């Protein structure tokens, strides 16, 4: 994530503990047959039009999908993550993301704080069959500095677009937004998003973007992205420039007028270096281009990664760009259930960040006595941290998690660790991984029994 800042300094302090939302457990039926993650291969076709300053976007969205489960699919869940902070709103102040005029199924009442909409399909969808649902979308950007919020004349629309939720062996995943970290779990899909907006607004977005003149005074920005788990965009009077990395990746840098030129230059340099280096280490970045959206006023929020676009709090000495670029691989390319297993993306991104900066991790061998509590473990879910333990989140997930991976590198040896991670990413490319998958990959890389290692680092 994300909303915490990880630069060259290896350890950073936690912010104050915030109020949390309770977790609602995913439905589970022990007697149910094992189900593949579904609905898969989603394809999103979206057309939205903005008002004069990009605070309101309205239009229509269609999502088609395939049932990958042997069990017929009788309904699908649409996640309205943009409602995570505001919930169902209040009289005179509706939720920021609203949908209506649903076609292709029958909607049920909104659930999980108005972040989940179940749509019953007209008939159960058989294994391998494909269908679609459509709905009107109305998005109002909240008046706060946030990944989904306002920053002066600039608008950030991260987690604003409704997405298909996932069902797997654990049932429907309808976890809440707990107010920190991420709760997201989506399958890779394709997006075609058409944004009609005033010409004065510059609109960076996920994917490969083209622009054309619209009606007088307006521009139509079309973004196409393949194999991504989410779609984000921004709008405002950004300054911009484009560079190409030595490895051939197009970097589009956008920043606000008050963002320091030195910070912009440092972030662009670090992004260029890290996207190429991680491409060699983990597998080439597959999306062709990458947008950096930078502001100096995001200090109360921080940074956030989205596929092909990162939002960065940028000061004269730079930003957390490298950690966020690492997320393009860990959660972006190699997906995971971020609510159930936050370590599988945050620990890996921080490990990659430290590798890039060549940090000295020789002292990164915490013993059992340094765990923040007897119940702490690297593989705890966001439900654990949301239950009054937020103070453990960064200490365990970011710091101890990265240390565990450095320690594993010492056990395997650096060349073997590099080969193992490259193969692990290849084997789960645009798929979903679990802790069990990673443990299996690591054990296959050595004749040494890693059982004691997993126990020491509480990787369960």
Automatic annotation (TrEMBL):
Coiled coil: none
Transferase among keywords: no
InterPro entries: M1_LTA4H (IPR034015), Peptidase_M1_dom (IPR014782), Peptidase_M4/M1_CTD_sf (IPR027268)
Alphabetical list of Pfam families matching this protein: Peptidase_M1
Signal peptide location: 1-27
Residue stretches making up the Peptidase M1 membrane alanine aminopeptidase domain: 322-455
Keywords, ordered alphabetically: Aminopeptidase, Hydrolase, Protease, Signal
Keyword Chaperone (UniProt): no
A GO MF label: aminopeptidase activity
Enzyme class: hydrolase
Superkingdom of the organism of origin: Bacteria
EC number of this enzyme: 3.4.11.-
Name this protein carries in UniProt: M1 family metallopeptidase
């Amino acid at each position: 994530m994300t909303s915490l800042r990880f630069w060259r300094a290896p350890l950073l302090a936690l912010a104050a503990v915030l109020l949390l939302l309770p977790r609602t457990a995913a439905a589970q039926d022990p007697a149910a047959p094992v189900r593949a993650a579904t609905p898969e291969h989603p394809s999103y076709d979206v057309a939205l039009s903005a008002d004069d300053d990009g605070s309101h976007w309205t239009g229509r969205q269609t999502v088609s999908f395939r049932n990958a489960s042997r069990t017929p699919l009788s309904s699908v869940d649409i996640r309205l993550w943009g409602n995570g902070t505001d919930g169902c709103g209040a009289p005179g102040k509706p939720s920021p993301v609203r949908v209506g005029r649903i076609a292709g199924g029958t909607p049920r009442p909104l659930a999980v704080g108005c972040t989940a909409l179940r749509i019953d399909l007209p008939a159960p969808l058989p294994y391998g069959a494909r269908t679609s649902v459509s709905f009107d979308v109305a998005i109002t950007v909240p008046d706060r500095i946030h990944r989904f919020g306002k920053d002066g004349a600039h608008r950030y629309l991260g987690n604003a677009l409704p997405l298909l939720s996932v069902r797997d062996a654990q049932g429907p995943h309808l976890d809440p937004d707990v107010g920190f970290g991420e709760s997201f779990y989506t399958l890779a899909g394709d997006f075609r998003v058409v944004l009609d907006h005033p010409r004065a607004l510059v609109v960076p977005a996920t994917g490969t973007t083209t622009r054309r003149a619209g009606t007088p005074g307006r521009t139509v920005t079309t973004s196409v992205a393949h194999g991504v788990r989410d779609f984000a965009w921004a709008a405002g009077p950004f300054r911009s420039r484009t560079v190409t990395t030595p490895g051939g990746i197009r970097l589009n840098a956008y920043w606000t007028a008050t963002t320091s030129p030195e910070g912009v230059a440092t972030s662009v340099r670090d992004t260029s270096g890290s996207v190429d280096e991680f491409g060699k280490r983990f597998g080439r970045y597959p999306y062709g281009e990458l947008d950096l959206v930078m502001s100096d006023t995001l200090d109360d929020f921080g940074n956030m990664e989205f596929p092909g676009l990162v939002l960065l709090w940028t000061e004269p000495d730079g930003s957390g760009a490298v950690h966020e670029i690492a997320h393009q691989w860990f959660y972006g390319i190699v997906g995971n259930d971020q609510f159930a297993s936050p370590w599988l993306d945050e620990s890996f991104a921080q490990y990659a960040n430290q590798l890039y900066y060549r940090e000295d991790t020789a002292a990164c061998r915490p013993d059992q006595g340094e765990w923040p509590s007897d119940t702490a473990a690297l593989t705890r879910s966001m439900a654990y941290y949301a239950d009054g333990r937020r103070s453990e989140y960064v200490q365990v997930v970011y710091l101890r998690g990265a240390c565990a991976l450095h320690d594993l590198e010492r056990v395997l040896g650096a060349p073997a660790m590099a080969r193992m991670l490259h193969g692990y990413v290849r084997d789960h490319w645009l798929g979903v991984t679990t802790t069990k998958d990673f443990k299996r990959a690591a054990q296959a890389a050595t004749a040494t029994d890693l059982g004691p290692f997993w126990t020491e680092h509480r990787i369960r």
